[in-house]
Amino acid sequence: MAIKIEKKITGYNVITEEDKLKAEQAAAEQKAHEQKLAEIVQLGEPLSRPDMLVGNTYKIKTPVTEHALYITINDVIMNEGTPQEHRRPFEIFINSKNMEHFQWIVALTRVMSATFRKGGDITFLVEELKSVFEPSGGYFKKGGKYIPSLVAEIGEVLEQHLYQIGMLKKSGPDEHQQKLINEKRAEYMEKHAKPGAETNAEGFPPGAQLCNKCQTKAAIIMDGCLTCLNCGESKCG
């Protein structure tokens, strides 16, 4: 087929078989890229805020802050009026008289609230927050539980709230394990506790060590084995 050239020729180039192969490969890569983009599943638009939300406010008092922190978690009711009705966190606010941590607390609550509204699984936030450690060291809260940082305590509160609304299920000792733990506690108090010795607020011996599993001062030596009276963890299996 003849092609009539009506413009002035300013240059030319010979297309080789290699050039044709490269052009075909580029076209194939572009097509594969477009197909990959088409497979991306969007989570959808963030949840819109209703005029009224239900929620809980939790008070925490720590040795690292002069004043108590008040953590409010508001929930949105999903699928209301159906068998699938459930609550899920929608927003979180943290308030305190102490302004020392104000900047990062505001940033944290905004990021967490945005994650809540995006939908999907939010339970991963609990472990992410609880795994934050303060470089200068953590503290023990009432009951002997070790808290590695103030951020981790916020994670503890979120975990407690998710348990309450049913988004998390507690994985504590089963009935048989709890019975064994109670027997071990009674045996220890009978054989090893000094007369008149008092237990701590959680009912564990005052000389108990920190359990590496549940981070609670409830581990005691019995029969030459370190055993936790809170979660049942034992070095002897």
Automatic annotation (TrEMBL):
It comes from the Bacteria. Transmembrane segments: none annotated. Its EC number is 1.17.4.1. It is an enzyme of class 1 (oxidoreductase). Keywords: DNA synthesis, Nucleotide-binding. Residues 50-162 form the TSCPD domain. It catalyses: a 2'-deoxyribonucleoside 5'-diphosphate + [thioredoxin]-disulfide + H2O = a ribonucleoside 5'-diphosphate + [thioredoxin]-dithiol. InterPro entries: TSCPD_dom. Belongs to the ribonucleoside diphosphate reductase class-2 family. This is ribonucleoside-diphosphate reductase. It comes from Methylobacillus methanolivorans.
